[in-house]
Amino acid sequence: MTAARQQRKQRLGIVALAGLLWLLPAIATPRAAPRAATSERIVVDRHTGLAIGGYDPVAFYVDGKAMPGDADLELTYDGAVWRFCNIGNREAFAAQPEVYMPRFGGYDPVGVARGIAVAGNPNTWLISGNRLFLFYDRDRLETFRADPERINSAAERKWPDVLRTLGP
Fold first, then answer.
1. Model-level pTM?
2. 136: helix, coil or strand?
3. What is the pLDDT of residues 22-64, one digit of tens each?
4. Burial of 162 by CB count in 10 Å (0-12 exposed, 13-18 middle, 19+ buried)?
5. Rounded to whole angstroms, how far apart are CA atoms 90 and 20?
6. pLDDT (tens digit per residue) in 87-129
7. Cα–Cα distance between 105 and 101 in angstroms, integer?
8. Separation CA 24–CA 8 (nearest Å)
9. DSSP single-letter state for residue 72
């Protein structure tokens, strides 16, 4: 091997080592699992800003099913972007957002009752006591259905503590 080639090889090795040392803090830093925003009192997709996955919160009441909202029919409320299927639903929400927003900001009430913020899934939902609840999965929905008053009461008591863990 020529002296010039040895020098090039040494320089490349030094550059590669410096690059690895520069990346080491990023590689060694533990990362949290991806999840819904947890610094919000409403479950919001951190990439899109959409509340409840872009589903229309009024449609759960009016249509009795989860319906994706339209990007052309959005409304920003309480730090989240809400989407709607039609203008009437958007106007109903704008007039009374607290009526249509999912209880506990879209966090699973079973988790909230246990003092934990677990993002609910808009495809696993229930209206109980004229409130929309979103659940992490079917098992939690069935747990809630078995004793909604007890779980909701426990969640109501724990909600202020859970909110404090979510940040400002």
1. 0.75
2. coil
3. 333 433 333 333 334 434 789 999 899 999 999 999 999 999 9
4. buried
5. 51
6. 999 999 999 999 999 999 999 999 999 999 999 999 999 999 9
7. 7
8. 24
9. E
Enter the DSSP assignment of 63: T
pLDDT, one tens digit per residue, over 78-89 is: 989 999 999 999
User: Phi and psi (nearest 5°) for 51?
Assistant: -80, 150
pLDDT tens digits, 56-81: 999 999 999 999 999 999 999 998 99
Amino acid identity at 160: P
Task: Give dist(CA 108, CA 137) in Å, integer.
Answer: 9
Residue 107: Cβ within 10 Å count? 29
Q: How many CB atoms lie within 10 A of CB 114?
A: 14
What DSSP state is assigned to residue 67? -
Domain boundaries, the chain: 1-30, 52-166
Pairing of strands 131-135, 121-128: antiparallel
Q: From the centroid of its chain, how far is CA 59?
A: 19
d(CA 154, CA 18): 54
Q: Which of 117, 111, 95, 118 is CA-nearest to residue 152?
A: 111
Among residues 118, 119, 115, which one has the least CA distance to residue 157?
115
Distance CA 133, CA 130 (A): 10
